[in-house]
Amino acid sequence: MKTKALETLLAELEGSVTVADDGKVSVSDEEKLRGAPVDTLAKKAVFGDTGQQAAARFLLWELGQVLEIYPASIHELYVARGRGEVPLNFTVPAINLRAMAYDSARAVFRAALPRNVGALIFEIARSEIGYTNQRPAEYLSVVMAAAIKEGYRGPLFVQGDHFQVNAKKFKADSETEVRAVCDLAEESIRAGFYNIDIDTSTLVDLSQSTVDEQQRNNYEICAKLTAFMRKLEPEGITISVGGEIGEIGEKNSDETELRAYMDGYNRTLPKGMSGLSKISIQTGTAHGGVPLPDGTLAQVKIDFNVIEELSRVAREAYGMGGAVQHGASTLPDEAFNQFVQKEATEVHLATGFQNIVYEMLPDKLRQSIYDHIKTAHANEQKEGQTEEQFIYKTRKKGLGPFKADLWGLQEDVRGAIRTSLEEKFGFLFDQLNVGNTMEIATRYTPHIEIHKGLEDYQVTTSPTEDTSELAD
Predict the structure, then answer these.
(1) What's the pTM value of the predicted model, to 2 decimals?
(2) What is the pLDDT of residues 317-345, one digit of tens each?
(3) Do 49 and 163 sit in the same domain of this protein?
(4) Which structural domain range is residue 55 located in?
(5) CB 126 within 8 Å of CB 467
(6) Inter-residue contact 407 to 97 (CB < 8 Å)
(7) Do 51 and 128 fall into the same domain?
(8) Which member of 70, 75, 295, 333 has the greatest number of CB atoms within 10 A?
């Protein structure tokens, strides 16, 4: 059934899109759609009133189905990698878009298309959903709009990153904290996130005498969350679920921990149920990098041998795609090809792109965000921390309150930021060797049509708290 908001929105799309009485969406003029109309859809999906948001998000989903841009799971590709069917000569970039998501996603596609990149993930962490003010349905809709804008075709891998269980809240009330992650997972899956990284590594208890006991809460809760999500899968799709054995920023992971975690997880998971497609490990990085007193970043020593060894064990012993590296976007340029050489399956990237945006903002807007940070988050400045260090670590929390200002920048500023981001994405795609991976991506993720109606887009406004440093 058409609503007044949908009718009004269709009138703004210059005849490029039609909706039949039965709700079927058609593209009348794709070239026209890729002009101002899709920009309108992206903005309405984010900043429209409740009815406009629902109408825009519904149209963007259905337009994706029509144009062969379809949310998909990377599970089958990863387990094929574990079976040795897929080459190990590329590492999949998982990109967190915190700021200016539409322009940033456009830059991703502009770098991906000429390289024929198909093995590519867009993601957002539990914490980022909160501090960037981007709920799952909004995030997926914006990425879809950018894909339409740039003429992309193929699978759209959108991922919930670090859906983390907060250790303090778990200790106080485990049922409520696990339910919060379940609720977010359900919201995300309904939005089209068919890839979710569960992070229960916060529950590892190193005070226990055996590695199995140290990892027990980690693997048991991860298995419980996996079973919950499997019940929500659309027909024909196996959600890609990732686990994590060591909290990023803590001690490096080892094979004993990996085996204890995976053996316990597989024992706990219901018999016959699909398990993990990948495993996140700690190798020496820290989320966002480590700022020095002057605000510059310290050089981080990463143990690539840990990646190589644990990726091998993950594939050969457990049939997963391999190991995942977090906290990598601020590493030096020469480090990225090492992930390919050491056969990492996936690498997560976020803060480096945020840094590019901040560097290119008009001075007045940047200063306004910093002034807000210094007032709203003053209690987060740690003893001995310089103002430069404090701003660098905290400025991500200014992105949500200033989201409209960032989207509303003049086109010349936004265009320059897109160009700079496109260059960075292109460099990373080259270093990670994901060029010409579209054939592999589509081979393991055929288009399974999933249609939705306006009723599926009841806008969610519930908060998602900033649980910790959950993304790169």
Answers:
(1) 0.94
(2) 999 999 999 877 678 888 899 999 999 99
(3) no
(4) 4-66
(5) yes
(6) no
(7) no
(8) 75
